């Protein structure tokens, strides 16, 4: 027991939880905390340029490492700026701990300067949140917050602390135990249900596994491979599930959804048993719900019971942790070969090779991504923004390990790439991290280039520059009669921007430049920004139009392919 | 949220009665109601009060079954950290009651009639003035609807209904039986987590 003030208790608690990095921005009411930071040299504070980026960095840090990412903002605008980042973490179920200051207790509810009801604002986009009204509640709240964020289905948790609670003194006692009566995630899976699932899989002629983000967060890649190999079940992933199953594996058939592979979408549509693991049957993945494969019986394995039966009715529900459930399921299923079914998908892939990169003289973004894959030997960690470049990065880089692709799938947050890559690089010192950006989204968070310089982080940035908000242009071309409105976007000279920050800037104007600039960037020890002047008109294919079924996947029209 | 329509209430054949045992903490009612709004579940009535155990509240929610598959309501409620136990009483043999206070126009000519109607419904007169009476009635929704209908011709000045509280018949309960281990309770107490005298400057519920 020791007598500490609230700020010290916060930092003590972080240390006990093994959290040693925070992405933050100071402000009036968190000054007591900043005042205390020098007493805790074990905690690294990274000063961001906008709180939204702090939340994305914490998110990128979490996604790259599997550990809790911490962001910090002051009251009012500091806290509200975090909201987009918190919601991004919420939609993709990542363990972000957001710490905010608030006005002094006496001013709460009085519309004080820089007051925002951040617990109210974030209530629907956090797993839980706390307004800590006494210094002696801080330790327990922090302990619970980290526990809730990182266990079960992970998710963001916010802890809001009024300024005078940071200053109040209390006896510090670290609670060794937690008792949250309303929070006990089910992890083991129901034995009877696992038996039923195994029977269904044994009887299935055309089973398919759709594996999601839960495989990655459940650290269950090996268990998934074991199950798939034993029963010879083809595996497709969701977009966020990329890397959860090695894409080089014989049973890997890419990922499904709006811009998923033609054969993956049709395999999902042609299956007689769909085994969804750690995924939530989201609309972008499944197409129009009532048009999805009506013949499939669904086995749904997820740690969140509320996901089961939410969008689709399920033949066999299994609530549990993939890492615990999959070995039990693998033990129950029979070994099988399924040559016909696998041959059918292989044939489909041969006839419709969605990932073919066309030979052209123009610089196609697919070519850039494929070259990046080759130059990095498929080892880099890739963080993306949202839009066309995100889909190309998902399609044309080949991912072999979990946590290799870091992308905002659920909320679809543009500008995620740079801060997420920074968070990942902080988590993975010495490893190669690339931020893949579009020229539109990059302008949303490019101020964070300063952090690369401050912290000497060797993140490489590849901007797919086509002078358009490319996905907007694509939709306006396809679904709005080519009525392009606000699709074209101007941009600064990105190389000069980089240089203004003291970062090396490179430009690739021709296809022949691509391998060389990538090599040059990799050889440079510090951060590098590359402006790839890609073909302006290229669209993302295949595509399932919004509201269409997976069986209605469109491939690149011949007119476009012939360009 | 939708609540009353004509006559105060809608028919209940499509509604579910869900009981949630929750931590008695600031903001918990907001979390529950926000969840219903967010998921598009329509609340017909919601009542909240203390339970047999200190530190816990019981929320009884009548939810429109058409807007909300009751299984999803239960599962979404369970996701809230402060929700400890959820029971769906719809399929149970239950006692469901609400209380209503009805202020009716009354004069020397019709007061007697009104009192007679009240007595048929086993309702109590809790206030009487020259121009009005307040009738207190306890019962299921149908009984209260019936009384309201009988009183309408006299002129209802004000109607206040509590919404449904419910309990399963027999020994089965919606109670949380599990007690907090003593050691943990001590930590909670020493950390001041459940302090009665703590006054918050505001509370979001």
Structure in words:
- The complex is a heterodimer of chains A (563) and B (205).
- With 563 residues, chain A is of the alpha/beta class.
- Chain A has 3 domains: 2-172, Thiamin diphosphate (ThDP)-binding fold, Pyr/PP domains (Rossmann fold), CATH 3.40.50; 191-351, Rossmann fold (3-Layer(aba) Sandwich); 365-540, Rossmann fold (3-Layer(aba) Sandwich).
- Chain A contains 23 helices and 20 strands.
- In chain A, the strands form 4 sheets. Chain A has a 6-stranded parallel sheet, sandwiched between helices. A 6-stranded parallel sheet of chain A has the order 11-10-9-12-13-14, with helices on both faces. A 6-stranded parallel sheet of chain A has the order 16-15-17-18-20-19, with helices on both faces.
- The longest helix of chain A is centred in the first third of the chain and has 15 residues, at 51-65.
- In chain A, 57% of the residues are buried.
- Mean pLDDT of chain B is 85; it is low at 1-12 and 195-205.
- Chain B has 205 residues and is of the alpha+beta class.
- Chain B folds into 2 domains: 1-91, 2-Layer Sandwich (Alpha-Beta Plaits), CATH 3.30.70; 95-165, ACT-like. Chain A, domain 2 (Alpha-Beta Plaits), CATH 3.30.70.1150.
- In chain B, a hairpin with a 3-residue loop joins strand 6 and strand 7.
- In chain B, strands 5, 6, 7, 8 and 9 form a 5-stranded antiparallel sheet that branches. A 4-stranded antiparallel sheet of chain B has the order 2-3-1-4, covered by helices on one side.
- Chain B has helices spanning 28-39, 70-79, 111-120, 141-151, 182-190; strands spanning 15-23, 43-50, 56-64, 83-88, 94-105, 124-128, 132-139, 156-161, 165-168.
- Chain A binds chain B through residues 105-106, 108-110, 117, 119-120, 123-124, 127-128, 131, 133-134, 136-137, 139-140, 148, 173, 175, 177, 179-183, 304-306, 308-310, and chain B through 22-23, 26-27, 30-31, 34-35, 38, 69, 71-72, 75-76, 78-84, 176, 178, 180-181, 183-184, 187-188, 190-193, 198, 200-202, 204.
